[in-house]
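Tutorial, part two.
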Amino acid sequence: MRADEHLWEVMKGTSSSLIIQVVGSILGFAVSIAVARMFGAEGSGVYYLALSMATIAATVGRVGFDNTVVRFVASHASVQEWGAVRQVYGTAMKVVAAASLFISVGLCFGAEWIANALFDKPYMELPLRLVAMSVLPLSFAMIHAEGLRGLKCIPASQWIKTVLTSLGTLLFLYPLAQLWGANGVVAAYVAATIATAVAAWLIWQRAWKNRCGISFDPQNGFLKQGVLFRSSWPLFGVALTGLVVQQAGTVFLGVLGGVGDVGVFSVANRIANLLLFPLMAMISIIAPKFAAMYRQGDMDGLKQLSRSSSRILTILTVPVAFFVAICAEWIMALFGADFKYGVSALYILLFGVVVNVVTGPVGNILMMTGHEYIVRNVMVLTSLVVIILCIILIPVTGANGAAIALAVGSCLQNIYMTVQVRRHFGYWPISFSKLMV
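Running the prediction step on this input gives:
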């Protein structure tokens, strides 16, 4: 009965979260098509390469506090320790503000070297300087979104993470692109991130007042800052190595290939990642629930919930993956003739995404239960494998090589973490676990 209640709560939250994810992805898809149609594969490559550098910089600037905020806000909010929740938020904002500002300035002043020495593409200097201004607002928006997840304000969190930036980019895209071409697309993205950060702060303030009121006891649940840093540092390693896995294909294509390859690969990767909608929607609900259940000692409930979620994700995703594979050529053609040769890369990426979904939220099980170091270690190994494969394959096969590296890395990390859940908790979290000993 208890397990059924948890599953029903997750499913209700997932359905609303999934709708928001679909809206955000439609907007992101519209941005991708607009950029591809306006500037072709090369213009898209400039845009995606700049975004990739912004994502890397913002992830470094958050120093692992995004997942730490989810875990500790959810854990302390579940027992009404609002003083500790406020302490987690305040510490995260101070640390992330300082780190992100430092990284942003570094990216801005290092843009010339990155464009010329690293990418050998001098025209990337201005896009990199522009996108450096998005690092701080990106980090702020993400910290607020993860804090809202911890408070179980899932729709608000999803609007911040998946909708607002894409919507803003789409609104600013045409006028700025008319003024500055492909650089205007990057400028539109920067303007959208700033607007999203402001909206995220306003949403957080409202949610905070609704949860605990304007006045609260700051001593209700005192938390030592050292506890936060002991959690954030392993999670920072997870974030960095996860970043390598996700962004290595784009970056190494920028270094070893052409900017057109970057555009084609990025589009194929975004299409494949559409299959992650159900997983991402469910994780937004289930991660704070894992943290709360672990804090309360409900290990049987955690087991049943993780298995049920994996089964549901498999049922939802695998048929869609076959449909996308069948229509792959037509889907890639939507972006223009330059993108048709990315069909093979899309097939490869689809395989990696399916393995990711079938194994379920194994990484979140480990991270929300104090096993961050396991996720960090497997991500370090995975990132090394992805880097080696990129260096070997991209000069020979271009976008397909980047796709192979990413798919292999995704499969490796999810299978390994599944084994670690079995080792530490005594059960297989995947959908067909009843067939396994």
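The radius of gyration is 21 Å. In part three we will examine how such features are distributed along the chain.
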